[in-house]
Amino acid sequence: MFNHLPLEIVEEILHRLPVKSIVKCTSVCKAWNSLITLQTFIYDHLNRAIQAPNHNNSLFFQFRKPAWHGDPRSLYFSVNQQADQFSVERFPLSHLFEHNRNELFVGACNGLVCSADYSLLKSATIIIWNPSVRKYIVLPKPITTAKPITIRKKRSRHYLCRYIDPKYDVVFGFGFDSRNNDFKVVRLMNDRCTNDTPLVEVYSLASRIWRSISVTVPQFSLSDRQLLSSVFLNGALHWLVCRHEDYNEVAYDEEGGRIYYRFILSFDLIQETFRELTLPQQQLKGKAVISRLLPVEGSHSLAVVNHVYVKRRRKHVFCIWVMKDYGNTNSWTEIFRLDGGLYGGKFTVLALTSSEKVVLMLNGGAIVLVDPIKRSVEPVGLEKMSEVFVSSFVESLFFLNKEPNVLSFKP
């Protein structure tokens, strides 16, 4: 029947199919293959999927099992609330990383995922892969004059922390430059011991090269447990960082401990400029506040969870905030709270779904979906997880059109 339809009609039908079905359609005939692998078709399919009222946005998770619980290598899965889809697969590219290193999640954008090995700055392995079409590329090694950065691993009871060399901070980000239709990987290296401008390097997927850029970067530092992945939305990368001790507005808590100024460091991928965004309710009298950026499924909203500890009452509260008007820090709005005494008394807030459910990792490592209004708990089916990295995700056809250096991987 399709042989008798005009190619324009066939194209309209293909645009409405899910990615995995379209991949199968490339084998139907040469005409369909040529159409589907056109860059314009790939971009149009993604844009239609994002703009559709029932688009298949999901949350993408990359996580690790504890090293003492069998295979320590990473796994990944996605949760699609609307389609009620859930699958777990072994991270397929672990063989690209050395066995004595940990592969970490940098970020996800437009169906592509960036993972990296942070063990050594000069020899770090960085990959970009598409789990939907099973294609990937390995980035060339960055060119830098900086000294190698090592990460020392220290095992604790519930998680595996990574402690960066105390002299340096290094963060990565991955996102999309919509003006130039270009995916970019950004790496920042900050010397804690000097006031020098941090080194900023940008990899362009279009040009396939790394370049250093001269740009003003707000002074920042990372806390010991700060996750190194970023949140990409509205054309910018976002990291939650803190100001080093040179910050002039020094504050102390009731016990004399230093309160650092924490903020969101944002990098515009089109203009390639940095800015600061203030956090909501970051300093409360008599209360310790720890903030964390939250990915939001299929949303352009910036979200933060504040873990507030009231010392006098020995009470934990998790306050979830959303920036209603992106870029306007006066628009931070608290949408709901979670009592820290629930669910066994210890949990980590990971993300928000499009149906306003909260993704939690419980004390034992299980992943659950919580409805704060109905107070219901829905197990995802995973237990004994260690570190978890989450991002909003939508499937795409990128890498399907046989670009240079793109390789295939098996399930």
TrEMBL record:
InterPro entries listed in its UniProt record: F-box-assoc_dom_typ1, F-box-assoc_interact_dom, F-box-like_dom_sf, F-box_dom, SCF_F-box_component
Domain of life, per lineage: Eukaryota
Record-linked Pfam families: F-box, FBA_1
SMART domains given in the database record: FBOX (SM00256)
F-box domain segment(s): 1-46
PANTHER family: BNACNNG10540D PROTEIN, F-BOX DOMAIN-CONTAINING PROTEIN
Protein name: F-box domain-containing protein
